[in-house]
Amino acid sequence: xxxxxxxxxxxxxxxxxxxxxxxxxxxxxxxxxxxxxxxxxxxxxxxxxxxxxxxxxxxxxxxxxxxxxxxxxxxxxxxxxxxxxxxxxxxxxxxxxxxxxxxxxxxxxxxxxxxxxxxxxxxxxxxxxxxxxxxxxxxxxxxxxxxxxxxxxxxxxxxxxxxxxxxxxxxxxxxxxxxxxxxxxxxxxxxxxxxxxxxxxxxxxxxxxxxxx
Amino acid sequence: xxxxxxxxxxxxxxxxxxxxxxxxxxxxxxxxxxxxxxxxxxxxxxxxxxxxxxxxxxxxxxxxxxxxxxxxxxxxxxxxxxxxxxxxxxxxxxxxxxxxxxxxxxxxxxxxxxxxxxxxxxxxxxxxxxxxxxxxxxxxxxxxxxxxxxxxxxxxxxxxxxxxxxxxxxxxxxxxxxxxxxxxxxxxxxxxxxxxxxxxxxxxxxxxxxxxxxxxxxxxxxxxxxxxxxxxxxxxxxxxxxxxxxxxxxxxxxxxxxxxxxxxxxxxxxxxxxxxxxxxxxxxxxxxxxxxxxxxxxxxxxxxxxxxxxxxxxxxxxxxxxxxxxxxxxxxxxxxxxxxxxxxxxxxxxxxxxxxxxxxxxxxxx
Lengths: 213, 366
Fold this sequence. Notes:
A: alpha+beta; 5 strands; disordered N terminus; B: 366 residues; three-stranded antiparallel β-sheet
């Protein structure tokens, strides 16, 4: 854990009341978001299902998933689907505990060869955090989005920087703005906000420490 | 024996060669850099956070202010992302206008780069030439949308303004003019011995390093990697036009310089075909729902900006505002390689290498 996270902790314990309130508010928000998600899922199930022809990119996805399961671990993939909104982008939700190993395989395996990490985004879903890695193979032009989920409190995702150097500043930015820790990152410091900044502005429950700034 | 001491030197954030408020702290042994630490954030405005409280049309002007040297491509990546999510059709005339302004923008942006790069290295007059010709493009944009730098021109489903009468003729006149000027600049500068001594073999890296660092644009293609999104993953109408992707092989500042000049020529080539095929009539706005609410889900789209891959990642919950909006900014990603390139170089080369990467700080910090 870095210095600013520690000092942030201190600032909050100074006011136990406020901390309790914040925690209660966070829990309530998480519960609301979870209830809403459940309701949405039920509504989706209630709708009559129309059988759709499988996407032409489904085999691509299946191959990636089966390789990950065989070479990394049976449980390395939590979920896999083609993202229809995004031109059927193959998308994989990777298990956080095996993500580093999976990343290495995605880059190195001759059938995959995802050598170019084009983007890393962090998303605060209120029930959990998610880091999305957008990959492409420059040789085959195949694309893949990998999501790694983590809990909101003590959010942590294994760093992909040892695999793709381009993850470095992207992960620093996510750490800075969303407060996700990246164990294995060579130089995890704030990058946009000042070093003594309190809090992580892109979190949905962010409240400025000093409203006048 | 001369005794040398390590010197800590701060460059920026107010320094003309850092092209904005970029700061770098270097450790020097004599004149040689032993360590370089970039310090960003002086221009961080929290665009992504602000966007979470705005609807998509309201976000467009914010994209102008990221890479303010190439606002048109920023406009495009956002509206393109929303259109992809909503499955909207853009009328042909509007798409042509978008493509034409994006290519004009590429020319203008590369001219700014060319002028300021030479200025960094010590040549004053090319800067004046470059800005004179860029001014013609800026005037064209001004006539089109009433702004010189922050255009706010594109909309989800089309463009805000149709080309005024006679505008396209001015673009047509500009193309041969610029081709001639480009040749003139090439003759004037590209063979200059002093200039070549300053940039040849400087800031070298190989293709594997470039790919590993996620470099894009001329920074990637200077190593010979054939990756231009207009060709590799065509968007807009680029597959309709003939153009080449200039490549380097040495991965040095000189190759990046050559590529950017050649890209101006290729953009003019695209423009020539585009103004010829420009449809006579038609709408400039497609059928767009009154409230723009992309369906719940997410999308990542990317286009080739003058600086490389600019991407837009939208997470939507079906509302008029994005739940999360993330921009993949080429300047930010390309800059990561700088500390690696600087170790062992002299202070003079810091300016040469930094300029060669071609950053816009509004986009680094966002």
